[in-house]
UniProtKB/TrEMBL annotation:
Family under the similarity heading: Belongs to the nephronectin family.
Location(s), subcellular: Secreted, Extracellular space, Extracellular matrix
Protein name: EGFL6 protein
Domain of life from the UniProt record: Eukaryota
Disulfide bond recorded as keyword: yes
Domain EGF-like: start-end pairs: 32-71, 112-150, 157-195
InterPro entries for this protein: EGF, EGF-like_Ca-bd_dom, EGF-type_Asp/Asn_hydroxyl_site, EGF_Ca-bd_CS, Growth_fac_rcpt_cys_sf, NELL2-like_EGF, Nephronectin_domain, NOTCH1_EGF-like
GO biological process, one term: cell adhesion
Molecular-function annotations in GO: calcium ion binding
Provenance organism: Grallaria varia
Keywords: Calcium, Cell adhesion, Developmental protein, Differentiation, Disulfide bond, EGF-like domain, Extracellular matrix, Repeat, Secreted, Signal
Record-linked Pfam families: EGF_3, EGF_CA
Amino acid sequence: ATCGHGCKYGECVGPNKCKCFPGFTGKTCNQDLNECGLKPRPCEHRCMNTHGSYKCYCLNGYMLMPDGTCASSRTCAMVNCQYGCEEVKGEVQCLCPSGGLQLGPNGRTCIDIDECSSGKALCSYNRRCINTFGSYYCKCQLGYELKYVSGHYDCVDVNECVTNTHRCNLHAECLNTEASFKCKCKQGYQGTGFDCA
């Protein structure tokens, strides 16, 4: 089975045919599936779509049960949580629907954790961290592009000399470097490589 365009979040099962992992869709499995828009809805009250998944949370006065349903809780109603709550040994605690969110100082609303600046994010050397509300993702560094290589996606150095995206002078040669390029004036010319005389 060969998939010319690759299967970003899935596996190749036939000629240009991808089988997507749960939570992803599209011809090359590169799109996040919005489970909150599915019928029947996966959550009883409110649904928050996340990258490759989703989270359920309840309206005020209800608490989230393990199966995604919301059970009435009079004590929860009094606390007025943004994303529902749970009762532990008679104590009421507000909940945040994602590990990338934390309870704010008021104990009721959820604020974003910036995984990129806190160092919690794990991105490989050729990827940079992009923070999102409740999560983060790893994007290829400048000078790299996402390519399907030997069975998986990876950030590969862009050869600006081959793709003709360099800005070298007509009388200079382009030399590809990791994540960038250099220009060197040809024999008989001198200058920066961007300007040769």
